[in-house]
Amino acid sequence: MFAIHQDCAILQYMKHNTLFTLFVLFGSLIWMSACKKGDNDPALSLRSRSARVVGDWKLHSGSYSFSRPFSADLKDTYTDSQVIRDSAGAKVYHAFTWDISFENDGTYTSVKKETAPGGVMETETVKGTWHFTLKNKIDDAKNKEGLILTTTDYALSSGAALSTYKTIYPIFGEIWKLDRLSHHEFTVMIEETELVPPGVQKTKAQFNFRSLKKSVVV
Q1: Of 20, 60, 133, 171, which is most buried, counting CB atoms within 10 Å of its CB?
Q2: What residues contact residue 74 under an 8 Å CB cut-off, 6+ apart?
Q3: DSSP per position, 69-87
Q4: Would you call 33 helix, strand, or coil by DSSP?
Q5: Distances (CA, A) of 211 to 58, 81, 160, 161, 214
Q6: What per-residue confidence (pLDDT) applies to 154?
Q7: Stated pTM of the model
Q8: Is 42 helix (H, G, I), strand (E, B) or coil?
Q9: Is residue 97 within 8 Å of residue 91, measured between CB atoms?
Q10: Smallest Cα–Cα separation from 63: which of 44, 77, 45?
Q11: Which residues of the chain are modeled with pLDDT < 70?
């Protein structure tokens, strides 16, 4: 009799323990799924969005297009080492790299280096602050779906020439929509439409960055 009661107690314990485990697992899945903001975000991630952003990144591939009435459309195609600039079908090839670092304190540094066929090296260094976008019902944007980059320091060197500026009250910024954000890579979408004389000016870009981190955790 004692053995029967003992077996029942064990089965009851296992039942409750299994239900508790399933409950915890289900709750964890909901919590981790809430971290999925971009269309191509990993389904599950063990890192917060901030932890995934912070670090050093290098451009892997990308595209850029610009159109304006009565002007030739511009199209750029990027790899990790060059850019192909296409203006009205005329293509030129430049060596190009883009590195960007996001810090825990909410600052970032972006460095673009481009060498024209003539051998002149241009380096654009931008420093500023970054933070996530907020939920916006009008644009159907989720909380932390994108990044807002605000410039505080700018420097452009071209050969021996150097131009810089710094602002205490930054007003310029751009929004990067995070189509994908993992610990190893992120893809941003940039779309801007502006009404200018004599019509509508459009900018569209997509950039894929790869992390310089060495980790197996997404």
Answers
A1: 133
A2: 64, 65, 66, 67, 85, 86, 87
A3: TTS--EEEEE-SSEEEEEE
A4: helix
A5: 6, 15, 32, 32, 8
A6: 94
A7: 0.78
A8: coil
A9: no
A10: 77
A11: 1-36, 43-44, 137-140, 171-172, 214-218
Please write the tens of the pLDDT for every residue from 26-42: 434 444 445 567 777 77
pLDDT at 22: 40
Residue 63: what residue type?
Answer: S
Half-sphere exposure of 60 (CA within 13 A, CB side): 12
- Model confidence over 57-69: pLDDT tens digits? 999 999 999 998 8
C-alpha pair distances (Å), 1 with each of 4, 11, 135, 167: 5, 15, 62, 83
Tokens representing 35?
Answer: 């971290």
Inter-residue contact 78 to 96 (CB < 8 Å): yes
Provide the phi-psi class of 24: left if phi over 0, else alpha when psi is between -120 and 50, else beta: alpha
Q: What is the DSSP string of 145-210?
A: SEEEEEEEEEEEEETTEEEEEE-SS---EEEEEEEEE-SSEEEEEEEEEEEETTEEEEEEEEEEEE
